[in-house]
């Protein structure tokens, strides 16, 4: 199976109220699952409304304080935050923040997100999205070695069983 490796820096972004978002994967126009990365410019901003969806946000660079109603959520590099897409989320940050976003429709897609820091193995037939958080991360896919630089990503379809060995820092999403 041929895998195409891409890097976040190659993706053209679109402006949102708080910065730039780069879509890494979307299953269809009116999506069931969407994977993206966004910058959050210094200052205050309001997150986009995705009412029928669930969301997970992982901070890749710097730190941000989110507000949901009266709740303050301080997130640093590597922290994850899960919330409903209908939640009104505001952000406040002093430095430009880079994040990783997973948005999915829980009625149509069963999703798992894992952060892998170190070594791990996975055997699955599900569709997989792999995002490297660090440079020089390695994976072995069906007995072939790959090295991924920081913010490289790969999508692997669900057409066959996959035996993957990870060594490094990754965000792994698999779904059916």
TrEMBL record:
Origin superkingdom: Bacteria
Gene3D superfamilies: Jelly Rolls
Coiled coil stretches, renumbered: none
Protein's name according to its UniProt entry: HutD protein
Gene source species: Psychrilyobacter piezotolerans
């Amino acid at each position: 199976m041929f895998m195409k490796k891409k890097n976040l820096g190659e993706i053209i972004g679109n402006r949102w109220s708080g910065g730039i978002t780069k879509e890494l994967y979307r299953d269809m126009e009116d999506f069931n699952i969407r994977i993206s990365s966004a910058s959050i410019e210094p200052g205050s901003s309001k997150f986009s409304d995705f009412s029928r969806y669930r969301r997970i946000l992982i901070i890749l660079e710097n730190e941000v304080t989110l507000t949901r109603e009266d709740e303050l959520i301080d997130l640093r590099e590597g922290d994850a935050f899960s919330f409903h897409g209908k939640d009104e989320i505001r952000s406040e940050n002093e430095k430009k923040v880079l994040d990783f976003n997973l948005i999915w429709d829980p009625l149509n897609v069963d999703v798992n997100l894992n952060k892998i820091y170190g070594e791990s193995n996975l055997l699955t037939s599900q569709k997989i999205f792999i995002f490297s958080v660090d440079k020089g991360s390695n994976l072995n896919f069906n007995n072939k070695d790959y090295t991924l630089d920081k913010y490289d990503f790969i999508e692997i379809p669900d057409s066959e069983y996959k035996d993957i060995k990870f060594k490094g820092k990754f965000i792994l999403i698999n779904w059916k």
